[in-house]
Amino acid sequence: MKKLLLSILAFSMMISMTACGAAEATLVDVTTTDGVVLKLPSDITAQGATYTNSETGDNLVVAVDVADPAAPLSKWAQADFVSSQLSDRTDLKVISYDNNKQINGKPALVCNFTFTTAKGNPVTDTLVMIDVGTKEYIINFAYNSKNSDGSLAKNLDACVASITVPAA
Questions:
Q1: Residue 113: is its pLDDT beyond 60?
Q2: 10 Å Cβ neighbour count for 103?
Q3: In whole angstroms, what is the distance from residue 128 CA to residue 137 CA?
Q4: Per-residue pLDDT for 6 more than 50?
Q5: Which of 77, 79, 91 is nearest to 124 (CA)?
Q6: Residues facing residue 59 across a β-bridge
Q7: This prediction's pTM
Q8: Phi/psi zone of residue 48: left (φ > 0), alpha (ψ -120 to 50 degrees), beta?
Q9: Radius of gyration over alpha carbons of the chain, in Å?
Q10: Residue 91 and residue 77: Cα distance in Å, rounded?
Q11: Residue 30 included in any domain
């Protein structure tokens, strides 16, 4: 009888711990200080000018720069992009590169790559650049490559597809 009672107790504890586990992150609408609207996993929150999950290190940074009309994104060859934008990365591997993308009806460049930080941490990064008139919006998604089950890794394509930038 004790074994049966202990088995039932152990089973009920296992079920309750499973039920108390971390909730699956859902996608929520976010508007950055630069006016970029996109969907992010609910476990990534604003931390000043960035959006971060402090437990996993998943993060998003948005910046606005001046677009160069003489060098539209569609003209950037992958090698030129890597040498001008990513040359400081260690163990850089470009996974995909698309400089003819349209996001929100605007010319965009999307580069997905991996690299290793100075402390030896593997990072997967997706850099999105969108030209709008004289402005260039730069949206950078990054997560630890060892955390491919994290909310940002699982929802990255949906996050990128949801990006809306202000009109010129």
A1: yes
A2: 21
A3: 8
A4: no
A5: 91
A6: 52, 142
A7: 0.83
A8: left
A9: 20
A10: 20
A11: yes
Residue 2 lies in a domain: no
Domain residues for the domain of 41 are 24-161
Query: What is the C-alpha separation between 113 and 95, in angstroms, rounded?
Result: 5
What CATH number should be reported for the domain holding residue 144?
3.40.1000.10
Is residue 40 included in any domain, yes or no?
yes
Rounded CA separation 38/68 (Å): 24
pLDDT digits (tens, 9 = 90+) for 116-159: 999 999 999 999 999 998 999 999 999 999 988 899 999 999 99
Tell me if 9 is assigned to some domain: no
Residues in the chain: 168
Backbone angles phi, psi at 146, to 5 degrees: -75, -10
- In the chain, the number of structural domains is 1
Cβ–Cβ contacts within 10 Å for residue 56, how many? 19
**What is the DSSP annotation of 1-42?**
-HHHHHHHHHHHHHHHHHHTSPPPP-EEEEE-TTS-EEEEET
